[in-house]
Write a structure and sequence with these properties.
The protein has 98 residues and is mostly helical. It has one domain. It contains five helices and no strands. Helix 1 runs antiparallel to helix 2 and helix 4 runs antiparallel to helix 5.
């Protein structure tokens, strides 16, 4: 199995949009603010585009009770996070979701 780079980049783009929403609460995450969160997503996206996806870092971000889930729970989009996490898991496994 190999990473589906296009699907992974699509997940990261959607994650970027979710993290950029006004009113997100970053107090329970390791990100000090929206700018730090977006910078990390942008750097990860650049690494994926360069052909060197930092899978361990990405897995930590998308893990249950990980940084992204903490933001989603405190910001009202926990259900959307679960969909993103499923898409992330599929992209990393190189599996297409229905």
């Amino acid at each position: 199995m190999s990473v589906d780079t296009e699907a992974l980049l699509a997940v990261l783009a959607d994650l970027h949009a979710s993290l950029a929403r006004q009113g997100n609460d970053y107090s329970w995450s390791p990100f000090p603010d929206v700018d730090a969160a977006l910078q990390e997503v942008d750097e990860l996206s650049a690494a994926v585009r360069a052909g060197d996806p930092p899978l361990l870092t990405l897995r930590v971000l998308f893990a249950p009770t990980g940084p992204i889930q903490e933001v989603s729970l405190s910001s009202g989009w926990a259900g959307e996070f679960l969909v993103l996490a499923d898409r992330f898991d599929a992209a990393v496994a190189g599996v297409a979701l229905p």
